[in-house]
Write a structure and sequence with these properties.
Blueprint: E1 3-10, E2 13-20, H1 24-44, H2 50-94
Antiparallel strand pairs: 1-2
Length: 96
């Protein structure tokens, strides 16, 4: 698919981007999530500086990404251990 030009508004600033057509929806949704999070922080905290609000958003999403990464790694380890156990059971069964 080809590239398209779009404009994304984050924290009252417009960013022109060239993106693949299949990525457009994801990028727009990401920008909406960021703007929603900024609005939430503005309403709940006495922070008005956009840079501080953006930093808080980055911290939130980076923390979420790291937690998800850790969870996936733990689940991968659990699955690998279970596959190893199944392989051992099958080897034991067929070697009898």
């Amino acid at each position: 698919m080809g590239e398209i030009s779009i404009k994304i508004n984050i924290a009252d600033r417009v960013y022109p981007l060239k993106v693949n057509m299949e990525e457009e929806e994801i990028i727009r949704r990401a920008a909406k999530l960021i703007n929603d999070r900024i609005k939430e922080y503005q309403e709940n905290y006495a922070v008005r500086d956009k840079q501080d609000l953006l930093s808080m958003c980055v911290l939130h999403y980076a923390t979420t990404a790291l937690k998800t990464e850790k969870k996936v790694m733990n689940e991968d380890t659990d699955v690998s251990e279970k596959v190893g156990q199944l392989n051992q059971l099958l080897s034991d069964f067929f070697s009898k």
